[in-house]
Amino acid sequence: MSRPTKYDADTILDASLAVAVERGPSEFTVAEIARKMHAPSGSIYHRFSGKDVLIGALWLRAVERFQDGFLAAVSIEDPLTAAVSAATHVVQWSRNDLDHARLLLVHRSADFLSSGWPEELQHRNETQRAAVTTGMRKLTKRLGATHADGRARVRFAVMSVPYGAVRPALAAGRRPETRVEQLVEETALALLMPLVRGGDHR
């Protein structure tokens, strides 16, 4: 009978997440993660070949967890409902998954990956980025935003508004207040209703 794995990948990633949000990019080291886990560094290297692969895997896990709800939202049949749901999902997810939200929305991947994405993770990263790009492009088209100004309006309503709304709290290590979701919803509706009522704005 094989021995149970003491330090599986998710256990290591959970400890890595704590170090990333508590200490930041400059102090994100395998040694620090090992101290957090009360484990030898070798147990981490057994699962991940190096620090960049580790933070890359953590980043991609966070993105996947965010995208589950975001991509479902942008696919809702009614485009206005889809857009508003996608915008408010950013707030909901930030409240429900504080540390992953702090990782993604306070930092950039380049803050941790100064040499770029490890080759073994590049395809997965590109696939994730393409999924959001495709989802937003389809939503923008369904909203009737065919010109540059209209497309910018959709992106601002669905992404810039909620990201900007949650970042101050996340940067301070706090969950966004519950009222932020309502404010984001009202702002997104105000920005997008002109598209729905009168077509694209050039």
Give the arrangement of secondary structure elements.
Elements: H1 9-23, H2 30-37, H3 41-45, H4 51-74, H5 79-96, H6 98-106, H7 109-112, H8 119-142, H9 148-171, H10 178-198
Molecular structure report:
It comes from hydrothermal vent metagenome. InterPro entries: Homeodomain-like_sf, HTH_TetR. Keywords: DNA-binding, Transcription, Transcription regulation. One of its GO terms (molecular function) is DNA binding. The protein is mainly α. The protein has a single domain, classed as Tetracycline Repressor, domain 2 (Orthogonal Bundle). Helices cover about 75% and strands about 0% of the residues. It contains ten helices and no strands. Helix 5 crosses helix 6. The model has no long low-confidence stretch (mean pLDDT about 95).
Average per-residue pLDDT, rounded, comes to 94
The description of the largest β-sheet is: none
- What is the second-level CATH architecture? Orthogonal Bundle
Assembly type of the chains comes to single chain
Percentage beta strand: under 5%
Q: Percent helix among the residues?
A: over 70%
Structural class: mainly alpha
**CATH homolog superfamily:** Tetracycline Repressor, domain 2
> Which shape, going by the Cα principal axes?
elongated
Predict the CATH topology. Tetracycline Repressor, domain 2
Order of helices and strands: HHHHHHHHHH
Rg value: 19 Å
Number of separate domains: 1
Number of strand elements: 0
- The number of helical elements comes to 10
CATH class: Mainly Alpha
Provide the low-confidence segments as ranges. Answer: none
Protein name: HTH tetR-type domain-containing protein
InterPro entries: Homeodomain-like_sf, HTH_TetR
Keywords: DNA-binding, Transcription, Transcription regulation
GO molecular function: DNA binding
